[in-house]
Design a protein that fits this description.
This protein has twelve helices and eleven strands. The protein is of the alpha/beta class. A seven-stranded mixed β-sheet has the order 7-6-5-8-9-11-10, sandwiched between helices. Helix 1 packs parallel to helix 4.
Amino acid sequence: MTTITELLHKSYNELFNHNIKTAKIDSELILANLLKISRIDLITKQNVTLSNDQIDLYNNLIERRKKKEPVAYIFNKREFWNESYYVDKRVLIPRPETEIIIEMLLKKIFNKLKTLQILDIGCGSGCLLISCLKEFSKSKGTGVDISSSAIEVSNINIKQNQLKSRARLIKKDLFKLNLKNKFDIIVSNPPYLTNSIYTKLDYDIKFYEPKRALVAGVDGLKFYEKIVSIASTNLKKNGFLGLEIGDGHYNKIKKLLLANAFKIIDRFKLINGEIRCILATKIR
């Protein structure tokens, strides 16, 4: 008979020996998901014994993690903002820092019942667009992505969140995008890693997550000029542009925004001093 504590201790050591940096939390997340309980419940149930079937299934999942498959892809699930989203290898796994864009918007838009038009450029799983639509419950949104596979995943999440009547998706290359309507909010977490940074990423990311959604050429700035150009044309005066940006990008993107009649009104700085998210408003 094997208890929860014994099984976790064994899997932690196995993952640690396979150079999994998050061995402890991953062991707990996998078991909690398998048992359909919270990680906190693992503590209160630490002496509970598991069936052979449960142990076999858990060990199979641990084997997948030992091959560096992300936990989010193992369970096709990732928490973002206040919801759980379907994810697989067709889309990036949502990151907590992207949630900052929503926090910034909520600090500036006090009336959450306003009817707003929202555009998400490079929508991926749809988590950013859907989170905005959940917060601004009278609003409508458009998600754009070049990947038909990503659009499929976005559609799954839109249906799951019962937002089909308020969200539409467009499969389109950003550089060929020509929108006629105006928006109150434009958000984007585009690819921004340089080729050199990509080569240094963990195997988990490089082998499993879509490279197209991560890398933006030599300097990582490839998409921002086009996004700002679209925002300059399609964002209403006093509208908001929320961007996630890469390391060392802030000064160049700030100049680009200023040159296109935008003013930066908020920014989020990481512990290492790098600015990861910015919020700008269109001043004319």
